[in-house]
């Protein structure tokens, strides 16, 4: 058994073995964190000596050895946290029914649950209703409060404090943990894919699914393949006009081209010192967009300076600094002799990065701002796809008049109808929010306005953002342009946008217009913001304000004015864009240590909400939010006999397609269920908010309006019930199959399950009766979730797919799965009346 590596006794560090031996191979610093955890947790059962040796010999064992990793804590947000906590509550019921003490069911790993995704934009006013007081959230909030009282090792951060990532950065991050006399690195896994944001502060962490997070909470390690580590060397000087968003999108593009999927990325080089701690977290936030596992910035002088201004006492700061330097987890970006050995090195010149936006459908499709007008026109011409809408040339110049509040306006292709300034995740950097505020100030002073029909909103990541916007004097100017603070949490990004005015929706439909949304968030899949808004662009907060003022994305900011002052004089973007010096001066005087202290004092349990005081949760049979799930009652058959295909899907089916998080459509199966419970459409809320109710989530599985099912030939949440030949909602078809005792499979193409990790993307199909997914390839995390739920992820052999095997999807499928099998073992799929083929089981 291995002993813990480092511990504190009378403020001295002791090392039980030769420090030089540990680091002779110049391991990447992220790998050193994995090594420390393995040695400290080495017990001969979960972690063996062989695991430690594999990490020590990382250069030879990378991409081969599987290693266990015990994170220091688990981070949940409410959308993904509520099903995890509901499962634990149901687990208590199950053990109690078997005569076992339910108090034994508690998370072993410290768990923080931040209530932030519950935010729903209802009114575009300055008055914010605390959702704790709203009926639609009361049941869930009471459940969360019960969790905080009933479970040990669970901390719940209530609503109106901040987004999960902002709270993690400002309050929960420790860099080093001090528990029981031991000092060790702070590490975290979270149920949000952007948990990687914390990597910017030198804390190793990444996103996992709800199923994996539950295992970690209950004391299981995360299993990962010893990663390939890409060293990203930053050189050059940053352009004065480039914001942190431009930097992150530029680096995202480079890393996507470098094919870093599934790898660790670790930053080093002279350019790193130019990036503030906020810049680094902004870059690390976009890690999922270039598919890396982590984007790690080792702790250096800049990181220490950041923590000195925030939430660290002098004593804690001293322990942290001494510990990190003693164990070689601190580095100087300017000292090349400290550069570790990496699997490979790529170099990015920061001077080459220019301001960009991203869209119109995918975050990786970057568009330089000077080329935006031309690019949008090209998208109108291109055939329907990731960069095309295929609008006939004769209809590209159409304008549609409409009335809004008694005034006539006009919409055309490229008109902006949604403009959302969001400061969570990739916009937590104070400089970009202050730039937006100063731009708004100058625009208002120049007499510029935003058209009132544009759905504008301002969702700060935390109260700290509101504080420094207010302290700097720019918040009133943002309000004058319509960017009112609507609350703290995820809103527009997860589909919680307020409905557009009916006259705007009618005009868009009348002209078949490609209307646009512009937001400073991190996700913008087509149809996610609003069903009728086809083009959506990610942009920095100041550019969101600029596009809102112009009212269109079809503008060349260098050559065309963004508006006119009261005297009719043209006003260009350069006239109102604040200089870097202006922004830095305001930032230095507003974003100070007092802000962090003030907001930390607000993080406490809420006291005005009643919650059950019981060991077992008293399930309310009338509740449409919280329901005891049936997972502990359902047996899983091994072999699959005479299954039908529920769906016949193509490539790139995302977890958004499988389990949507946005609003519940009025004509959906979930809506009919809620209506049967006497709820009105206004009370439906969203799928994300109802993840604690399996009845809603099962009906919402494959309910995306963008689902492309080859059985149907058009987009929509429909499928073919093969025995009857009827076209039904996916849930209704699955329900019929289950009544008839028919197991189900899904046929798919490449990259099945890509996108956000989402436990209901595996739970939902399981409850629909799906027992296998046969695809050309899978997203790794989703594949693991399928296995965890008892759904077999089967991959066509190389060179084969449904088309090459001439499958129409209407066959009957039988799959014999042996009691003992190995990963990538070939299995035979029997297809009744047609053919027999092999597929590879990735289990």
From TrEMBL:
Pfam family, one: Aconitase
EC number: 4.2.1.3
Keyword Transferase: no
Catalysed reactions, semicolon-separated: citrate = D-threo-isocitrate
Superkingdom of source: Eukaryota
Top EC group: lyase
Gene source species: Astyanax mexicanus (Blind cave fish)
Stretches assigned to the Aconitase/3-isopropylmalate dehydratase large subunit alpha/beta/alpha domain: 58-551
Keywords on record: 4Fe-4S, Cytoplasm, Iron, Iron-sulfur, Lyase, Metal-binding
GO (cellular component) term, any one: cytoplasm
Domain Aconitase A/isopropylmalate dehydratase small subunit swivel, residue spans: 671-797
Name of the protein: aconitate hydratase
Gene Ontology molecular function, alphabetical: 4 iron, 4 sulfur cluster binding; aconitate hydratase activity; iron-responsive element binding; metal ion binding
Necessary cofactors: [4Fe-4S] cluster
UniProt subcellular location: Cytoplasm
Transmembrane segments: none
Family, as annotated: Belongs to the aconitase/IPM isomerase family.
Main location: cytoplasm
Classification via PANTHER family: ACONITASE/IRON-RESPONSIVE ELEMENT FAMILY MEMBER
